[in-house]
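In the current project phase, the collection of sequences with tokenised folds has grown. A sample record is quoted in full directly below:
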Amino acid sequence: MATDAKQPSLNEASERDPYNNNSYGVLVDDSYNSSPPALASVLETLRLSEPNGRRVLIMGDMLELGPMKEALHREAGRRLGAAGIGMLVAVGTLAQETAETARRTGIDEVHHYPDSARCAESIGKLLGDGDLVLVKGSRGTHMGRVVRALIAGPGESH
């Protein structure tokens, strides 16, 4: 069925909207908020996707989880393999727990950055043709910086 609905461009994309980026594949910005149930939902969506390249999760800390925060981040790392994640980019202190667990459970390509600014500086170099890239993190982790860097492309300021 044909549609006249306009597809969002890179410059028009907003949080929670998928959009194409010709330099690698598809970028989905779900950086507005994160929690264990929201992350589980995203992982299920990624599991069901059929990208031409890898399933890439760029995950910032899930904040405001109380005394279980480290355990919940480790649990997130355990779930990545079942979702078919080909590369994890973890951002923040708590997300490092996710990264370490993901490595132990068989995710071969795992990167960690202490904050979103450092991630934004080099994220474009990690992506390949056809990658489906999903950015997720609590608002306080400023994952929008990473999204803006991906939209701007290599060599652009963000």
Summary: The CA atoms of residues 92 and 99 lie 10 Å apart. The first helix runs from residue 36 to 48.
